[in-house]
Specification:
Blueprint lengths: L1 H29 L3 H13 L7 H16 L10 H16 L10 H5 L3 H19 L3 H20 L9 H13 L3 H13 L8 H13 L3 H14 L5 H13 L2 H14 L4 H15 L11 H18 L4 H24 L10 H33 L6 H34 L3 H26 L1 H4 L1
Helix pairs in contact: 1-2, 1-3, 2-3, 3-4, 3-6, 4-6, 6-7, 7-8, 8-9, 9-10, 10-11, 10-12, 11-12, 12-13, 13-14, 14-15, 15-16, 16-17, 16-18, 17-18, 18-19
Keywords: Coiled coil, Signal
Protein name: Tetratricopeptide repeat protein
Amino acid sequence: MKKLFLTALLAAVGFLSQAQKLEKAKDLLTRKKLPEAKTEIDNVLAVEKNKTSSEAWYTKAKIYGAIAADSSLKSTVPDARSTAFESMKQYLELEAKEKDAAKRNIQLTLDNNAPLIELYTGYSKDAATFYNASNYNDAFVNFKNSLAVFDLMSAKGIIPIKLDTTTTLYAGISAEKAQKPDDAAVYYGKIAENKAKGEGFVEIYKWLADYYRRKDDIANAAKFSALGKEVYPSDPFWTGFELDMAREKGNKEDLFKKYEAVIKENPDNYLFLFNYGVELYQTGYDPDAKKRPANSKELIAKAVEVMTKTLEKKPDYANANMVLGQIYYNQGVEINNENKDIRPKDGVKLTPDQLKKKDELRAETAKKFDLALPYLTKVDELLDSQGKLKMEDKDNLKNALDLLIIINEEKVNALEQKKRQAEAKKDAAGVKAIDADIKKLQDTVTKYTDKYNNIDRKH
């Protein structure tokens, strides 16, 4: 009996001794003797059975938090703040086991959550300091830690807010600037998933959509594009992005259906019409006829229809005039090449039917060139009157003038042939009239040639 009593007494003495050490650590903290308080609390928690004491962990969190906040001491314990945070997590974990909910987190409540708030603000201040010094890597680490504290407070119901938008934004920006796009995507993603809206936030949604598209993560690219469109429905980026996604899938039929839907949703947007027309023509046309799809003629006809509608919306759009002029010119060239392929073989003269066919093809070529002329001329009128041109506009002007020269030279050649026929018939009046037309066309060729040669100097 005495032995049992002595054992119990020794255990009580041990318990009292540890309790006294904890009280001593708390007293040293109160008197701001932080190095001594740290040594004392470390000794308390070095004892295995004390590791189940939420009060000990809470005291450790306060001591290490105070060291982290002390400019003269924090360098002596570099991990003081992270140690304080881990200690707070241990405290809250142990307190969560308390069956009586009313008794949970009493110490933290009595302190108005100060230890956690001080950890949050401490990380935030350091993050801001690093960010302003362009040390984006350390800024990211501290913004990330600040958010970890915030998330803990939010999860425990200490604060009612679920997203710290500003800190999350700067965590993403810091990660991006530190060349850590995968980390940036995590924090930008939190903003987008919460459908946050603010000054410049639309760029976050765009960044995420493009980031995942480049990673070939179609599901997430579509997800963030849809979120962006929901939050910022008037921004035209989303429609263009959806078209890019459809284009990258490689299914032209799906892409064209998407264009039709987009144009229906945006009937006044001439750019969607223009891009659709270009897509149709590029799909249907190849300089090598053997490489064209089976429905090439239908696609090109649709391209002409769509490009014509583009110019109905915006008649002064040089790009659309150039494309439509180019389409008609290319058609004329193909007919002309067909005409050239009909030629005498092995010294045998062309048959009357062949000669008739050549005349028909010449007429069709001239008709296509005549269709191209007003559009190419419009390009010249729109661009040549301007000052310094962008590279794209300068290229368009050069191409338009080049084609205008070729078309008019072809007309001169055709008139030269008519002149020879008139001379053979000794039709003096006819020859004179043709000469006048030739002179007029030659003057036009000279005019366009001079313009072409002076483009770089003028523009």
